[in-house]
Write a structure and sequence with these properties.
- There is one protein chain.
- Helix content is about 25%, strand content about 25%.
- It contains 16 helices and 43 strands.
- About 40% of the residues are buried.
- It catalyses: L-seryl-[protein] + ATP = O-phospho-L-seryl-[protein] + ADP + H(+); L-threonyl-[protein] + ATP = O-phospho-L-threonyl-[protein] + ADP + H(+).
- InterPro entries: Bulb-type_lectin_dom, Bulb-type_lectin_dom_sf, EGF, Kinase-like_dom_sf, Pan_app, Prot_kinase_dom, Protein_kinase_ATP_BS, S_locus_glycoprot_dom.
């Protein structure tokens, strides 16, 4: 007899409460309660202890309310509420008011920061295991405020980066004030790094000299959203993507815009508490970060990035290189009183005057600058092209051994010295290696206090673990004799639901929902689909996968990608099951079944022209989202009517997307054998070429021809056709166009009720999609644009009704 889980929890509850009571820190903060800066035990802890939220020392008697990685050696901060307004080390409080507002108060009672929230219902503050600090309406269990919406300099796994958010670097190493470097989406929908200094703002990555497209980006997706997922993959709506060098499930990661303007991905080694660099932008030289050494300053390598002032200049601020250098002289406009100091292998990027010329001699370039009061100096390229770059300002200076530029800085006569005599100014080395990531500068007493607190935490944690182990041992007999199909996995289902955003079902749940997998509603190359009803009365489609060889960890990672994809023309994945050999996906149930059953077989439902055109548009929108818009770009690899489901409003929903991820075999092509269905396969499948989105475009073109003709490309007979086998749809359509007899190919079920202009457009689009040369096929977003141009007013109303 299986003991109900409810009774187990009831028996364990008192013991677990006693064991967990010894853990330091709070799991929640309730209305009317506060965290005090003086009390070292006043802090929030995430459920598994990965993150801690509390007061963090940023200077002498100065604190910020922060979130940091608990197990990092230097308490690495990932979020700060008041980075520009530290509070006093005594009598400051973080308080949750009864009104629902979370407020940070300084010692004098003044409000330094608040969440600016109001709630008539009961609320509480929690620190989630993701590192997200949330304010929750307890009655509705709804988040009304979260720190993930207001990042500082760091993006965490599963934290979405949007058009409304910006990463802002620290001012300098160990100085948490707002810095001058930003990561944000620009007005062209492209993710940029930019220098946002006191006097000017300019993008320094991606390289503005190259086009957006040369850098592999696209400005056409206006959703402006990006995310770093749990397995170390970053993807953005502008087509920028990268993977961590230690890609996979395991390490805790953070994407940080460091004080030197470089965006870096770090992975935590929890055994040592140190951080390992696992990605940084390719081609972004540290000395090419704009504003790094301020006006007139020069960045060089010694051997790390180092700032210096050129001859005749002095450093403005001994502790802040962003303030740059000032000249020790005053310039006149009299050419007779001026000369130039030469800096070899040096350039000042940007700020070229419009007198730039190519194909001129060095002396000519020199004379032009001497006679121009606005010219502060000029660069002359040693590339044989005679390029002269007169400068209106000396900013973004850098020296590099491979640089073929000589910089000439205008100075008064008598100050000329060779570059070898240039005095290097003592500088702060601009380094972000692991050893240099110091996040606080506490006194010895402070470090001793922190160490004692940390030891208390370890002792309490060890004691609680021991207590829990004793309880588990006492209940061991139950685990030995129970017959539970889930005993192989130790991952808690609730945690998986939180991390992946949808539910992990047990095999017994799905067996019960489908009445032992009784009602089969579909079968394909990836498995069999059954209709089921969950305990909450939701009707679902349950797909039992066949031939998945991935381990559970990899399967969860891939399923998490599919589960986050959400579009009204894509079938929604509600959950999954991974127990022993069972790997199952749970989808929303779509009422009218698949398109092929309505289109090709005897069915009481007949698709009219408007419905067919809307199905063509909706399917294109779903595929365009997969290819170009969603956070995890996915190839379908099996677009066909059997994988296009029709809901009660005759709105299409593409199914089976993401299967190529679950069944891929890991080689460079992504597949070692053909995926898809005969009749819909693009030529590149047979030519052993690398498969990309254009393979889906080809298959979609075939589906368009099927919508027009009512004939199946896969060899199935049309219910209305007397042919013994299906004709070649592409050849048939091409011949009809040549003979100007398009009406011959129209499905007889339509009874000549169709829009001739739309018919012509659908045929044109279909034939573009099925071009043998994939480079000439349009992207799915272009297909959507072409079809939408011809939508009638009535079709738009149908589309609106289905959306509502």
């Amino acid at each position: 007899m299986e003991i109900p889980l409810f009774y187990i929890i009831l028996v364990l509850a008192p013991f677990l409460a006693c064991a967990l009571a010894g853990l330091p820190g709070l799991s929640t903060l309730s209305p009317g309660n506060s965290l005090a800066v003086e009390n070292e035990d006043d802090y929030l802890v995430s459920p598994n202890g990965t993150f801690t939220g509390g007061f963090y020392k940023v200077g002498t008697n100065a604190y910020c309310f922060s979130i940091w990685f608990t197990n990092s050696a230097d308490k690495t901060v990932v979020w700060m509420a008041n980075r520009d307004r530290p509070v006093n080390g005594k009598q400051s409080r973080l308080t949750l008011h009864d009104s629902g507002n979370l407020v940070l108060l300084d010692a004098d009672g003044s409000i330094v920061w608040s969440s600016n929230t109001v709630s008539s219902a009961a609320v509480e503050v929690r620190l989630l295991e993701t590192g997200n600090l949330v304010l929750i309406n307890r009655e509705k269990n709804v988040v009304i405020w979260e720190s993930f919406d207001f990042p500082t300099d760091t993006l965490l796994a599963s934290q979405r980066f949007t058009r409304n958010t910006t990463l802002v670097s620290m001012r300098s190493r160990g100085t948490y004030l707002l810095g001058f470097y930003n990561l944000k989406f620009d007005d062209n929908n492209v993710l940029d790094l930019l220098y946002n200094g006191p006097l000017l703002s300019s993008v320094y990555w991606p390289n503005s000299v190259s086009t957006i497209f040369y850098n592999g980006r696209t400005p056409y997706n206006s959703s402006r959203i990006a995310v770093l997922n749990e397995i170390g993959s970053f993807k953005s709506s502008d087509n920028f993507r990268f993977n961590a060098s230690d890609y996979g499930v395991g390490p805790k990661r953070r994407l940080t815009l460091d004080y030197d303007g470089i965006l870096r991905l770090y992975s935590l080694d929890e055994s040592t508490g140190s951080w390992k660099l696992s990605w940084r932008p390719g081609g972004l030289d540290s000395c090419l970060v704009q504003g790094l050494c301020g006006v007139n300053g020069i960045c060089t390598y010694n051997p790390l990035p180092t700032c210096t002032c050129p001859t005749g200049f002095k450093r403005n601020n001994p502790s802040d290189w962003s303030k740059g250098c000032s000249p020790l002289f005053n310039l006149t406009c009299d050419p007779a009183e001026l000369d130039f100091v030469e800096l070899h292998k040096t350039d000042y990027y940007g700020f070229d005057l419009n007198t730039y010329q190519a194909g001129i001699a060095l002396e000519t370039c020199r004379e032009k600058c001497l006679n121009d009061c606005k010219c502060k100096g000029f660069g002359y390229a040693l590339d044989g092209k005679g390029q002269c770059f007169p400068k209106g300002a000396l900013r973004n200076g850098y020296r590099n051994p491979s640089n073929r530029m000589i910089m000439h800085i205008k100075v008064p006569k008598g100050m000329v010295k060779s570059i070898e005599e240039t005095e290097a100014v003592t500088t702060n080395v601009l380094d972000c290696s692991t050893g240099q990531l110091v996040l606080e500068n506490n006194s010895p007493d402070d470090r001793k206090t922190n160490k004692n607190g940390y030891m208390k935490y370890l002792i309490a944690f060890a004691a609680s673990v021991a207590g829990i182990e004793m309880i588990c041992t006492g209940l061991g007999w139950w685990y030995v004799f129970r017959n539970h199909a889930d005993n192989e996995e130790s991952v808690d289902a609730g945690y998986i639901a939180l991390a992946l955003g949808f539910k992990r079902f047990t095999y017994s749940e799905l067996k019960r929902a489908t009445k032992n997998f009784k009602k089969e509603i579909g079968k394909g190359g990836f498995g069999t689909v059954y209709k089921g009803v969950l305990d909450d009365d939701r009707v679902v489609a349950v797909k039992r996968l066949e031939g998945v060889l991935q381990g559970h960890a990899q399967f969860w990672a891939e399923v998490s990608v599919i589960g986050k994809i959400n579009h009204r023309n894509l079938v929604k994945l509600w959950g999954f099951c991974a127990e022993n050999e069972h790997k199952i996906l749970v989808y929303e149930y779509v009422e009218n079944g698949s398109l092929d059953k309505i289109l090709f077989f005897d069915s009481p439902k007949v698709l009219g022209w408007d419905q067919r055109y809307n199905i063509a548009v909706g399917t294109a929108k779903g595929l365009a989202y997969l290819h170009e818009e969603c956070l995890e770009w996915v190839l379908h690899c099996d677009v066909k009517p059997q994988n296009i489901l029709i809901d009660s409003h005759f709105e299409p929903k593409v199914a089976d997307f993401g299967m190529s991820m679950l069944f891929k075999d890991g080689n460079d092509r992504g597949f070692s054998k053909v995926r898809g269905t005969r009749g819909y396969l693009a030529p590149e499948w047979m030519m052993n070429l690398k498969i990309d989105a254009k393979a889906d475009v080809y298959s979609y073109g075939i589906v368009l021809l099927e919508l027009l003709t009512g004939k199946s490309a896969s060899g199935l007979e049309s219910a209305t056709s007397l042919d013994t086998e299906c004709s070649d749809l592409v050849e048939l359509t091409t011949e009809s166009i040549r003979e100007e007899e398009l009406e011959k190919i129209i499905d007889p079920k339509l009874k000549d009720k169709y829009n001739k202009e739309q018919l012509k457009r659908m045929v044109e689009v279909a034939l573009l999609c099925v071009k043998d040369d994939r480079s000439t096929r349009p992207a799915m977003s272009k297909v959507v644009e072409l079809l939408m141009e011809m939508m009638s007013e009535n079709q738009m109303k149908i589309l609106k009704r289905s959306t509502d």
